[in-house]
Amino acid sequence: MSDTKIFLTGIKPTGTVHLGNYIGALRQIRDISAVHKTIVFVADLHALNIMHDANAVREHTYEIAAIIMSIGVNMDNVLLFRQSDVPAVCELSTILTNVTPKGLMDRAHSYKAAVDRNTAAGADADMGVNMGLYTYPILMAADILLYGADVVPVGADQKQHVEFARDIAGHFNTIYGNVLKLPDAQIAPDAGIIPGLDGRKMSKSYDNVIPLMANSGELKKKIMRIITDSKTPEESKDPEISTIFQLYKHFADAAEIEKFAEMFRAGGMGYGTAKTILYEKMDSVLAPMRERYEYLMNHRDELDSALAGGAEIARKIADKTLSRVRRVTLGKK
């Protein structure tokens, strides 16, 4: 590893992981793990504020663990575990609740978005808002602070989570002394908007996603469903406004990208041919990951072993932090 900085990220097991997740976040985890100690936890406790199906939470947890272990991360540098396998996070979250101003939670993006939706619908502002959603940033702060993370890679829209962790740690340290390390956010490189099958941002809410670990047949079917304009094969096409080309750019090298762009501009290529080229490129990149993923999902004892081993190490780190917190807050030795 190049230095001793600790990077940390959590992934909620709330649905199918798709190409947008891979391009926007998972590849960054892979790249960071090549040179840095990286803590990756499956945030199953966070999932509970919107999911109440234990079987679904468990299944998605396995899927995320298998994906992390399949996309080329350096597992020698990665500490992978379930959030719920480290009980200290709940205790630290409870303690942090007592130093966190209510006004901070009122400003949380997730809470404000729920209130705005309710207000727009003419409903009570807090309809459907549970305390898990409202105090979500406190549990997230506990996730970050418990392991002494130096850097938390996030998208620009998630920067507030790290800012809140710093604010909460600051309130705690003002009262009790310099106990908790203040983390820094690292804004992920802008991958741009990852288009879905209909050209809009790839999102489960739009039902326009391509699952990351779709089998070869499903992948091809999804790609062939990409919506295009009515230009004939003979006509020149603008690659910069093509969903096909925008997806291709994330899987090809510079020379391949330039060649494909020229094929669009030159004319003589129909969208069916372009989709086939995209499928073949994507499948060549994803096939090794998919093979490893399918193996792990069929050998869950290996996933259990990896998660349990990671949790054992994570608990030791967490307990050291919690011991310091208990000493200054409760007088426990």
Spans of at least 5 consecutive residues whose pLDDT stays below 50 are none
Rg, rounded, reads 22 Å
Largest sheet: 3 strands, parallel
CATH class identity of the largest domain: Alpha Beta
Number of strands: 5
Percentage of residues assigned to helices: 40-55%
Please report which band the strand proportion falls in: under 5%, 5-15%, 15-25%, 25-35%, 35-45% or over 45%: 5-15%
- H/I helix tally: 14
The succession of helices and strands, N to C, reads EHEHHEHHHHHEHEHHHHH
What is the arithmetic mean of pLDDT? Answer: 95
Shape summary: globular
CATH topology of the largest domain: Rossmann fold
The protein's oligomeric status is single chain
Structural class: mainly alpha
Overall tally of domains: 2
Q: Could you describe the 3D structure shown?
A:
The protein has two domains: about 5-195 and about 300-330, HUPs (Rossmann fold); about 215-295, Tyrosyl-Transfer RNA Synthetase (Orthogonal Bundle), CATH 1.10.240. It is built from 14 helices and five strands. The chain has helices spanning about 20-35, 45, 55-70, 90-95, 100-105, 110-120, 130-135, 135-145, 160-175, 215-225, 245-250, 255-265, 270-295, 300-330, and strands spanning about 5-10, 35-40, 80, 150-155, 185. Helix 3 (about 55-70) packs across helix 13 (about 270-295), helix 4 packs across helix 8 and helix 4 runs parallel beside helix 14 (about 300-330). The radius of gyration is 22 Å and the shape is globular. The chain starts with 5 loop residues before the first strand and ends with a helix.
